[in-house]
Amino acid sequence: MTTPKPAITFDARPLTDPVDPKAVSAFVAEMRARRTGGGVGMILGIVAGVLALAIAVPILIASFTMVASRGFPGLSMLPFAIFGVVFIAVGLTALFSHRRGREARYRLSRFAAANNMTYEDRVDNPALPGMIFQHGNGRRSTMLVRGHSPRFVEFGNYQYTVKHGKSSTTYRWGYVAVKLDVPLPNIVLDAVGNNGFGSNLPSSFDKDQHLSLEGDFDRYFTLYCPEGYERDALYLFTPDIMARFIDNAAELDVEIVDDWLFLYSKRQASTLDPATWAWLFGAVGALITKFDQWARWRDDRLRVEHASPGASSAATPTGAAESLPFAPPVGMITPPPGVAPSGRRLKRRTGWMWIVVIVMVIAINVWARAF
């Protein structure tokens, strides 16, 4: 399956051109003023870097002074010198990382403006229905670049933290969120090319919901749709649309949920790399040209609610014709936009790995108590 790739033209100069430090500082101050308490992490990073340097420099100076005065053998001061060098490295890394982060955010804001988009520095607990936004704590989207025409599209980086007892793990994603015209069934395309020992998605789904499509689509994606919505998935994923996904999004996981389409990546989506933007712009541009077809989809399961027999008989006066010449029969009335409850969310399953871990922990505790 091959489709012609659209010519993507955009202004990438703000991503690489030199920046004015004063303009960067003014931008950061503006972002900080718009986000109450949002600069705490950044301030802590600066403080950590300054403290590391404040501790390391005197230690290093004292070490060299003692060695130079021959009051202590040189080798005895080597651990202190190494300790000082390490702390200096940590402090400088923290400060340089802070500076690079400031410049990256400023560049992305200029990049958005140059390409008729808008920039948002950070959103805590984003109200998005995608699967990655439903896990863990400390949820936040950062460096958001948003387009508003011909439809709303958001490019962003996202992270959340999951606690495991006394330890925790932070997961990071890049994503693209595209607003659709109507709600659609919850469908997931798990990209085969970015999986390791199993899916890299944070949620797993009942295998009864797996739908195999024609051609070589299954070589690139594993498609899940709610049971009973197989025909609807075939309507949405026609051969030409499957070709678009294969040619432009084969390394991205895809989720359709409510009236949103999400593209997920394990690397940053909002970045200073022009090649990444060309890739994502191309993928979105190739897909949105087909969304008009999706806008015509309706869930027949809502037909009964939309055209109930009671409502029909009440609307027809006694002695009047059963239906007007230009009105469709009651049974053919188009359902309203929406999805019946059975199709709104895929059924999740508990991974076998977690079950094995729980059983092992219980077995170890029982064995320890027995002996």
Describe the structure.
Helix content is 42%, strand content 20%. The protein has 371 residues and is an alpha+beta fold. It contains twelve helices and seven strands. Strands 1, 2, 3, 4, 5, 6 and 7 form a seven-stranded antiparallel β-sheet that branches. It starts with 12 loop residues before the first helix and ends with a helix.
Helix and strand topology:
Layout: H1 13-16, H2 21-34, H3 40-68, H4 78-114, E1 118-124, E2 137-147, E3 153-164, E4 167-191, E5 210-211, E6 221-224, H5 230-236, H6 239-249, E7 253-265, H7 274-288, H8 291-295, H9 303-306, H10 309-315, H11 341-344, H12 352-370
Antiparallel strand pairs: 1-2, 2-3, 3-4, 4-6, 4-7, 5-6
Helix pairs in contact: 2-4, 3-4, 6-7
Q: How much beta, percentage-wise?
A: 15-25%
Helix fraction bin: 40-55%
Compute the number of helices: 12
Listing every helix as H and every strand as E from the N terminus to the C terminus, the arrangement reads HHHHEEEEEEHHEHHHHHH
The low-confidence runs, each spanning 5 or more residues with pLDDT under 50, are: 36-42, 44-50, 311-321
Biggest β-sheet description: 7 strands, antiparallel
